[in-house]
Amino acid sequence: MKMIPDYIKRAILAYGADNIVSIIGEYVPLRKTARAYVSCCPFHDEKTPSFIVDPGRKTWRCFGACSEGGDVAKFLMKIDGITFPASLEVLARKGGINIPNGGSKEESERRNLLNVLRRAQQFYHNSLLQNQNGAKAYVGSRMTDAMVRQFGIGFAPVGGKTLVEYLDKERLPLDIAEKAGLIRKDNAGGYRDTFRGRVMFPIRDKAGYIIAFAGRTMSATTARCKYINSPETPLFRKSATLFGLDGAIEAMKLQGEVYVVEGYIDLMQMWSAGINNVVATCGTAFTREHAAILKRYVRRLNLMFDGDDAGRKAHQKAILLAVKEELKATAFIFPEGQDPDSFYRSGGKTENLVTMSGFDFLKQSGVEMNATMQNLHRLERLENGVAYMARSIPDVARLLARRGNLGELFSPEFLPDIEEIITNHGGARK
Question: If 41 and its partner were Cys, which of 62, 109, 378, 410 is the partner (CB 3.0–4.6 Å)?
Fold first, then answer.
């Protein structure tokens, strides 16, 4: 890697220090206290928050089992498993700080990949606006103009080399486009487009950069697959990517929960209905990696899978993964044959859906719960009871306000307080 000049390094570290709360807040849900921000440590399992970010000192530290600490660069090194120079490049990107001569080879390649993906999105979007192959009418039957603009929807023309020709004309490197999954080698040794005759959905990372595409056929009878995704690349892994994450983070952190759906259009319809804390899997089942990503921002998953047998099985699997990540889960049950797209497009309201706690859903489905799951189920019921009590008992409401949120209530030091309150109000903890 080329050396970063000292004055640039100082500027990068100063930016990181000044923005340590917002940067670390992208990875862990921070709660403000009088002088600092707290969270459960992301580097080891714990129930009681011991991870402190101090904006005055511009440092972070775990006062629990791992006892780690340092500046924001060290945090990025540890949580992303990267080197110190790489952490400087991440901070430089976030702060819009230019590194002379482009930094490392990996960073230069990343910028080239992002650039060609951005230009491809512009090409696909313009193709849609030109109404090639009747794409505009098809898209209009499923999406509003606002949805098309917000999500940058496009269309990949039918011809096998239209994108190749565009990239070549714009003097964009075809080998980079191949590495980005946009084009592939043909039998003659040239290139052909990966996506042809499909509505294009840009897939973005949490910072909003386009890292891949999903292409949907307009004819269910002439294509083997309704959707195809970009192949895995240095920027994109399906099992660790969530569609819509970039636009959902702030709403997720604010509300402490997220809706998880299976389809791109499912998410877009919910966004159109005013629900912003929603993400979708990218053509794959919900994975433990997905759960781990969402755990950085929320304590509860609201699972919204299709109202059929496959959807019920998806609920079971996702709930079990949520339990492993110590996340609460609620299953939202759609009427048979419906999904979020059809439900919200027809004017459906979230409050009219049948819901079940994740554990109740598992029990109804005949899944045998082990001792840990049973204990978590009892704890969830106790939390629900406390939330109910808080609506009518001022002592409980004040205790909740002191603790910050339900997700942090049930630490050992809390239980004597709640037992005393319940006893004083004529109840008994079961």
Answer: 62
Q: Is 118 left (phi over 0), alpha (psi -120 to 50) or beta?
A: alpha
**Joined tokens for residue 273:** 């209905």
Domain of residue 90, residue span: 6-102
Name the residue among 80, 31, 59, 73 with its Cα closest to residue 297.
31
408 residue type, one letter: E
Task: Return the C-alpha torsion angle 223, 227, 230, 235, nearest 10.
Answer: 180
Rounded to two decimals, the pTM is 0.75
Residue 322 lies in a domain: yes
| CB atoms near residue 173 (< 10 Å) | 13
3-state secondary structure of 120: helix
Q: 219-278 pLDDT, tens per residue? A: 766 567 889 999 999 999 999 999 999 999 989 988 889 999 999 999 999 999 999 999
Taking the C-alpha atoms of residue 308 and residue 187, their distance in angstroms, rounded to an integer, is 42
Work out how many domains the chain is built from and give that number. Answer: 4
